[in-house]
Design a protein that fits this description.
With 120 residues, the chain is mainly alpha-helical. It has one domain. It has 3 helices and no strands. Helix 1 (3-38) runs parallel beside helix 3 (92-119). It is elongated and about 60 Å long. The N and C termini lie far apart (63 Å).
Length: 120
């Protein structure tokens, strides 16, 4: 691959990863908003179902983003001479996995916390 092709592929994968993360963040903030507005009024089954739906959708869009981050890591390792900035040499795949898994677990924890407040 030429330098121009590598940089174009890098840019395409970065844009697609950002789109996947943008959808993930949209789902996350929609879930948090909904759970804090109506979470106390939800039954246990409803809370479990909405959390499962959030988990499924956020995981799917996270995996899209992480797949593109993995491709970025592959391009950087295969063509290091074409990448002139250290920023691209960060382990993006591990970073993406860490923040999405943490975000999903934290949001599901918030749903549990809201339900627990109902009992008080």
């Amino acid at each position: 691959m030429s330098e121009a092709e590598v940089l174009e592929m890098l840019n395409l994968h970065a844009a697609n990863a950002m789109n996947g993360f943008a959808i993930y963040l949209t789902l996350t903030f929609a879930f948090l908003t909904a759970i804090y507005i109506v979470g106390v009024q939800l039954s246990k089954l409803q809370a479990v179902l909405i959390s499962a739906l959030y988990f499924a959708w956020s995981t799917s869009f996270s995996l899209v983003a992480i797949t593109h981050l993995r491709d970025i890591d592959s391009l950087v390792s295969e063509y290091p001479d074409f990448i002139n900035t250290r920023m691209w040499h960060i382990p993006w795949t591990a970073f993406g996995c860490l923040i999405t898994i943490a975000g999903i677990l934290i949001c599901c924890g918030f749903a549990y916390d809201i339900r627990r407040e109902k009992k008080l």
